Amino acid sequence: MMRAILTRCVAIGALLSLLAPHQYGADVRKLSLNEAVQLAISQNHSLRIARLKIVESEQKKAGERASYFPQIKDAANADDSTGVDHLVIPAGTLGRVQGQLVPGSAVNIPQGLHHLLLNEVSIDQPLTQLIRIREANRIAAAQVAISRADLKKAENQVAVDVHRLYFAVLTAELQKRAAEEQIAYARQELKENTEGVRNGSLLRVSGIQGDVDVLEGQQAALTADLQVGDLNTELDDLLGLPLDTKLDLQPIEAAGADRRPLEEYVQAAWANNPEIASAEESIKISRAAVASAKSAFIPDVTAYASDTWQNGVPFIVTNFGTVGVRLNYHVFDFGKRRSAVREREAQLSEAEENLQRLKDSLSAQVDRDYNALERTKNLVAVADQVVALRRESERLSKNQVTEGVVTVANTLQAASATYKSQVDLLQANLNYMLAWAELKQTIGQTPGL
Prior knowledge:
The structure is a single chain. 65% of the residues lie in helices and 14% in strands. With 449 residues, the protein is α+β, with helices and mostly antiparallel strands. The chain has a single domain, classed as Up-down Bundle (Outer membrane efflux proteins (OEP)). Helix 1 packs parallel to helix 5 (204-239), helix 2 (33-43) crosses helix 4 and helix 4 packs antiparallel against helix 9. 28% of the residues are buried.
């Protein structure tokens, strides 16, 4: 009864694996780790948005810079009046000439036309406002630098994410192969147990256990296969590739530069980490904002010149020019400007404190990454020793099969254990390389480039 149920489960599992839809399209792309990092940095959607943010900030800075120069304006009016004032000169206002009144009768002089055309061209040059304009330009320049630091931070993060997914895919593929090795061993053991049950040398429970081992191996292989598919799709999205692109990732060997003293990495992080650069630019923004707030106590003085043309007012010349200086000043605002200055000073103190916080946090992060390098390096050494012992065990097992001491299943079991130890060694090597990548990210370098 139990054997029939297990056999049916095996059949159902095989049928589901055959009916499962293909996850990948026909495209297969070979990639090395460095190629994957470069592809992600050039095509990742988030990084493209970050680059457009830089362009946005640069254009804003260009707009602020234009405020240094005079503004030329033109204003035109076309008016139609329903009534026009008149100047009336009564008869005799100018006296008499040879007994005749001058003027001889009342004169009605209209004071303009019903239609008035007025056009004024002016040029304004800010003077004292140049203080605020200068600070606004400094703020815009700092915002450009912050957007570039944000791009660098995003590039470093994407590079580390590529390392993680790349290593995860390689590990999942090896785990799948290790599960297949386990299935081969379980099937051979099942075959030998079945023969033992028939001969009466083994109990029936041995055959049932063999079926369970085969099913567990198939379950592990199927799980690893699904994991490979999910990770492949996730890596496609990170690289900016079509999601149905199957990736053929090239194997890699563990590599890492010799470790330098911890203090050197801390200094490198303070000098190159994009978060530190962004915090330093934020301090510049806050200082410029303080200076701009203080400049509000200075009157706005503007030099201007204008040219006016009109057609409709008879006692004003048709075209005339004006040159002058304009002053605008808020005499009293109930402490609004003073409060603004204090607000900006508080923001400056916050920015300076945030920079110190980031430096302390980065120092701790560098220390953790530095220690992770040592731990993962030791794990690699241990895993390498395990592989050596497993290989020796497999060699002895093969010799024992030749001598008839052990069965073929024992040899397959030793081979499966060897393969699993190799998977563990690869995982240890990948963790060591990932630790290097994370340390490079912390000190402001892009891993893989």
